Amino acid sequence: MRKWVKKATDVRKGELLDSAQALFFSKGYDATTVADIMERAGVSKGGFYHHFSAKEDLLEALAARMAAESLKRLQPVLEEPGLDAVARINAVLLQSRQLKLEDAPAIRAAFDAIFKPENIVLYHRLNRAVSQVVLPLFVDILKQGKAEGLFRIDDPVTTAEIILHLGTSTRDAVARAIEATGTPRAEEAADALDERLRQHGIATDRILGLPDGTVAFFEPGFSRAALAVSAKKAE
Fold first, then answer.
1. What kind of architecture, by CATH, is found in domain 8-53?
2. Mean pLDDT of 90-109
3. pTM, entire model
């Protein structure tokens, strides 16, 4: 019989997140149960529910933690001297795409479920949690661009919130691309996702008062590459 050991609250919560991350990445979110997570973490039922009321809450916390870890990996770009705001935001977006390619199989295993129609509320919960983590990064860049006279904006905080909120408009295109993976519709769906990301970039340009095509949310072929890499995990 497992012996439950009392630990500091933050330590125990971290162990639950570590266990959930490992299981979500290896088994997928849907196939992982709360009992699986408790067993791996060595946590009692009471210990689990002291920190999280449901598996969905744990996924939300995990998404926020992963976003914070990604910010740490982006820190060299954020601190690189000599970049104006346009160069900095494009460097951040480029590095973010590279990180997504590196992490694509694990991310897809853990987060595929949020793109199912029945999980739309969960999707918005996770998006809100991640946006709260990355918002300060975008605010700082927009403040820099306003000070440099590059961005024609009034309120960097509100503008950053609007730009991040635009990201939710890509959800359906992402869902269709995931669903089409491995089918004859895969390339068409990936191209449609690329086009959606391109339009997101143009909308961002116009909000910031920049020429179309300045902010590179889009990179030709990125969606196909990301979906191809992530599909390897599912095979």
1. Orthogonal Bundle (1.10)
2. 85
3. 0.85
